[in-house]
Amino acid sequence: MDLDALVVGAGFSGLYQLHCLRDRLGLSVQVLEAAADLGGTWYWNRYPGARCDSESHSYCYFFSKELYQEWEWSERYPGPAEILRYLHHVADRFDLKRDIRFGARVVAACYDEGENLWEVTTAAGERYRATYLVSAVGCLSSANVPAIPGLESFAGRWYHTGEWPHEGVDFRGKRVGQIGTGSTGIQAAPVIAASAKHLTVFQRTAQYSVPARNAPLDAAFKRQVRESYDAIREVTRSTPNGHPFRIDRRNVFDVGEQERRAIYEAAWEKGGLQFRASFRDIVLDKAANDTAADFIKQKIRAVVRDPKTAAVLADIDHPYAAKRPPIDTDYFETFNRDNVALVDLRAEPIERITPAGVRTRAREYPLDIVVFATGFDAMTGPLFRMNIRGRDGLALRDAWREGPKTYLGLMAPGFPNLFTVTGPGSPSVLTNMPVAIEQHVEWITDCIGWMRANGVERCEPTARAAERWGVQVEEAANATLLPLATHSWYLGANVPGKPQVFMPYAGGLARYRALCDEIAARGYDGFVMEPSRAEAARP
Ligand code: NA7
Q: Structure pTM?
């Protein structure tokens, strides 16, 4: 039987997309999920220290006030186990599981123009056909294990943080090497160090980090959150990043040095991503940014006792928050432990992995376990993995050879009726994801609803609309300091051979939402809406 819609992925995006298409539009929907259970990112990322960097009272759905108010988070930042409990609660509450097929990895998705259907094949050889295909595969679901020569010869065990074994890894008595010091590595190192015999952290690019200050939530805060649903929702919808706090209106140089320092100190004590919101122009003006960068570098030097190690950790070559800013629990403090060492890969790059461990240009580091905290083939990787072919057999990989070409990050020319939740060219990874996800899922639902109400069978953006949107995405990035981090995964720079194009839309979620709504209100400007044959034949 042909379905109305296929949704790929059962994380935050896929669950809500299923609910909207099935229960609001009344469509027949099947969700295909590669994992054995729901959860998306949180199913896979169970590495030591894994925790969400968004605050729990905003890292959730807002579409149902009752759902929001009946769920209680226990900590300021939720860990994977609590997020998974939450998602199971949502899935049960809205009876979603019956339409999700687990263990079904999509290996091909081909558009049949004659039938106007997507044909989707799973790794097990199952085939599905549907009018609409919605990708809900997330932005960071394709693990990046660097092709370091000799990995296959390593006599110990190795793991990527994004595919962490659910039974956990026992580090006791082990010499562990951790490659990578992004948000993940910064969360993992302190926890690994606490149980390993020894931890060697291999750092290629030094990173800023601000204390997360995680803590249990008290009853008063929980009550306040429950009572402030409308206000919290309003803030997440009106701020550029979808977080539950506003960016200060003052510029860095509107205040004197002493006051500035006090503001940074207070933000450091408060902790979290909110540090970036201390002033309006931190990610817009280099001189302003330098003040935040210098403040954090001073903190690193003050925390880390060994001056050489402190110098390597504080030798940061890009503006603060130009790469995704990590937040941590005792990351820099970890380097004061006797069982932790830092290796500066800028001074001694990794040459190969040997049976005994990691060999850099300077020496060999004997290891029992290597942990790759080396990130993801972000944004495009998860889409390419599905081998999507659109009109005339055009492979998405080929269409995007020079970088993703989308309209609003929602659809791509050449791929009718394929919708991408938080696709490249949308605010996505620059935001608190569930807020961006809800906006996309609702827009997609409205668009499909509109198509059906108006006898439209095919929707596809024009090449011109996509080209113009690409320019807007580039301009939005260039208005910030973000492109100055030339090694960032926002630019695809972490994956060798990947085109270097700034992928997320940096113009802010609130502005983006308004734009998407305007386009829809104008009858989906920039999209070709092809009427069904029956509709076209009407006198
Ligand atoms: P990131 O932010 O991409 O960090 C990956 C880290 O791994 C980063 O320090 C990289 O250094 C390092 N890396 C990558 N490849 C290598 C090789 N070949 N050799 C040495 N070091 C390497 O991934 P995360 O998982 O930490 O975070 C991803 C997002 O998940 C995060 O931003 C949140 O949104 C959630 P580099 O900086 O490239 O020099």
A: 0.97
